[in-house]
Amino acid sequence: MRIGFVGLGKLGLPVATCIAMMGHDVVGYDINPDQMTKKPQAQKEAGPRGTGDDFNSYLAKADRLSFDSLERVCSCPIIFVAVQTPHRREYEGITPMPDERIDFDYSYLIQAVSEMAQYLKKGTIVTVISTCLPGTMRREIMPLLPPKVSLVYNPFFIAMGTVMRDFLNPEFVLMGSDDAAVLRKMEAFYLTITSAPVRLMSIESAELTKVAYNTFISMKLGFVNTLLEICEKVPGADVDQVTEALKRADKRLISPAYLTAGMGDGGGCHPRDNIAMSSLARRLGLSFDFFEAVMLSREAQAKWFARILADLQQENKDLPIMIYGYAFKPDVKITTGSHALLVIDYLLNSTSAKNIMVFDPIINDDRNMTLPAIYFIGCVHNIIRWKGKKFPKGSIVVDPHRVISDQKGVRVIRLGERREE
User: Fold this and answer.
1) What are the distances in angstroms from CA 48 to CA 164, 188, 197, 283?
2) Which end of the chain is flanked by fewer CB atoms within 10 Å, N or C?
3) pTM above 0.85, yes or no
4) What number does CATH give the domain 295-414?
5) Domain 2-203's class?
6) Order of strands across the sheet with 150-153?
7) Tell me: the pLDDT tens digits for 139-196?
8) Nearest Cα to 155, choosing from 199, 194, 113?
């Protein structure tokens, strides 16, 4: 297959070389003519075997990799766009973070796609791999493309220095598009590159997944380095002993567990342990109270849920608010530390919410379930058949767990689910 590549920098050239190695005819273009070469690169990049394997030797032998004009590159049926979306130096993380928060700089990407647009033909798939925030492709890039040209957002999870190895051996391939048929074509292409699983989704979901992946790593390191500081300040504690034990927790910690969005954690341990650890952070004078930040995030999310319910009640003044499920976790009658109860607390202390009721299907009876109301699904018990659960007509159901199906006469708001504007 003929594959075009726009952008031959530290990411683009190694990936273009990989694709050529896998038997495709790759044509590359860069705004800087000096990048359009197979001469040894100054960048410290490894080959597909990682450290000790020289990228330049693979580049020199890439017989299927060639360079040409932007017009010729844009004649390929699939074109990868690997153009930088940088931050200014003060946002690099090597100096204290500025008070102002800014987005990435998309000017280089916009310029590249704008120049491509004059040459793109019907049926071409433009595949952008540049990092961006959710909403960028639809706002900045899609309006630049001619009709009948498809956009795929396909960010990579690679590290500079090991681009070839990471591209050929990813945990998964991520792609987002509005066109399912185009995604299938791209999936077929990737079957020639890697056996890794492919995750297909909306453009916005793919944009968010990329930056969520990177910031998740930052979150983990921030937490483990908080343990480092505690162990330095508590005689007898050893951070490696602690973390080696945590690494063995592959059912709940190092696993997919707790990665389904919904309510915050609860019970007799989690909230109180974070608050106790926050007190320890203050007593030890830690450089940052990570545990306070966790609890403030939990509280802010509960307040957000309460605000959604209060606003809906303002719009529908005759409807009471019903918290449907307030146990701290599914299939127990225990409410200690329940995040749903925190939502209720914010509602009870709100000046804009009134007529608030609470009910849990395994704790008390459902005699009030005949009333139209604004129902908030606070806890999802596994013994309840949620998909077929019927609510009184005229009700509004706010569902942070996304388990309630659409039903006639009921407005169902599944929080976080993609909705067409």
Assistant:
1) 5, 22, 19, 49
2) C
3) yes
4) 3.40.50.720
5) alpha beta
6) 65-67, 25-29, 2-6, 78-81, 125-128, 150-153, 173-176, 198-201
7) 999 999 999 999 999 999 998 889 999 999 999 999 999 999 999 999 999 999 999 9
8) 199
